[in-house]
């Protein structure tokens, strides 16, 4: 078994065991922290598909998180206060909310991706951020859903055999979802589709000359990543029971990018490690000083500048040096 696979198994085993142990010993805070980082890790894994393996630097990925969260909050809001009954969207059923989150996020990714992928480089970065900000301001302008103040979700999604009001069951669903997301990405990148996607990242012109329509391959990956992030958003809405436009602000997209880069791009477990370190450092430093953003930013900057390939890249470098 390779060193990378061992690291993946160890990280996922610790993430599966430690939070429930902390919760059962009276430390519920750590379970909440683990649930949050697990959900954000799903979004980071989805971003890694297009960023790490596809070379597409999207600065608007948090928009899909927000879309997924509002796909839970809006039907729950109308279920309580009325409206949208004719469309069957006034509900707290997870059978409606979760597919809605995935579907709307995928549709938004399809429409915006079809335009964004006509550009490249810094233009691609800017246009993805522009579309995310358009969605941000669109939600802010809708007063019925709280506008800039956000919207409280009074009732979590109802699913058979799973009670999302139980913190352990919610964490279990998030953890299983993370494992499934990682397996999906692994299957994609190791398929012929993934080979074309990675080849386009390295030399797009050469892959096009081989007869592949890399635009369609990239657009498909972009939609898949958006749908996965939308699902993560649905979980995040159920976890926080409060949603706001801030979820889809460009700063949140930057945080997701940092998670991927911190852990290591184009690696299976890198986004999970990055999300874990990001959330833990944020909690620890913010408990020490109100000026925690400065040391936090310096630490991230040091990893980006001196840790080639993120944490996973540093581990590979250590292995090569020992050999």
TrEMBL record:
GO terms for cellular component: plasma membrane. CDD domains: TM_PBP1_LivM_like. It holds the Pfam family BPD_transp_2. Its main location: membrane. The chain crosses the membrane at residues 7-25, 37-56, 63-82, 94-115, 122-139, 168-189, 215-236, 256-281, 288-307. It is found in: Cell membrane. InterPro entries: ABC_transp_permease, LivM-like. This is ABC transporter permease protein. GO terms for molecular function: branched-chain amino acid transmembrane transporter activity. It is a multi-pass membrane protein. It comes from Maritimibacter alkaliphilus HTCC2654. Keywords: Cell membrane, Membrane, Transmembrane, Transmembrane helix.
């Amino acid at each position: 078994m390779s060193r990378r696979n061992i690291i993946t198994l160890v990280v996922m085993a610790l993430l599966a065991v430690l939070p429930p142990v902390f919760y059962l010993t009276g430390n519920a805070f750590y379970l909440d922290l683990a649930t949050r980082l697990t959900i954000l890790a799903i979004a980071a894994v989805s971003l890694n598909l297009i960023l790490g393996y596809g070379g597409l630097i999207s600065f608007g990925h948090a928009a899909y998180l927000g879309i997924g969260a509002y796909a839970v909050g809006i039907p729950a809001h109308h279920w309580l206060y009325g409206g949208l009954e004719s469309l069957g969207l006034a509900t707290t059923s997870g059978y409606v909310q979760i597919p809605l989150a995935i579907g709307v996020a995928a549709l938004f990714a399809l429409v915006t991706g079809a335009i964004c992928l006509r550009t490249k480089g810094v233009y691609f970065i800017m246009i993805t951020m522009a579309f995310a900000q358009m969605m941000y301001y669109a939600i802010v302008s809708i007063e019925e859903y709280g506008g800039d103040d956000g919207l409280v979700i009074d009732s979590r999604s109802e699913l058979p055999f799973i009670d999302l009001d139980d913190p352990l069951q919610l964490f279990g669903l998030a953890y299983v979802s993370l494992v499934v997301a990682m397996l999906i990405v692994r299957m994609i990148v190791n398929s012929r589709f993934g080979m074309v996607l990675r080849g386009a990242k390295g030399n797009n012109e050469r892959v096009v000359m081989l007869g592949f329509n890399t635009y369609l391959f990239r657009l498909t990956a972009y939609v898949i990543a958006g749908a996965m992030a939308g699902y993560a958003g649905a979980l995040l809405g159920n976890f926080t029971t409060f949603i706001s436009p801030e979820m889809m602000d460009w700063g949140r997209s930057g945080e997701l990018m940092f998670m991927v880069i911190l852990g290591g791009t184009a690696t299976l477990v890198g986004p999970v490690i990055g999300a874990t370190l990001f959330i833990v450092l944020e909690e620890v430093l913010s408990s020490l000083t109100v000026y925690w953003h400065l040391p936090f930013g310096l630490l991230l900057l040091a990893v980006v500048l001196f840790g080639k390939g993120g944490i996973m890249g540093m581990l590979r470098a250590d292995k090569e040096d020992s050999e």
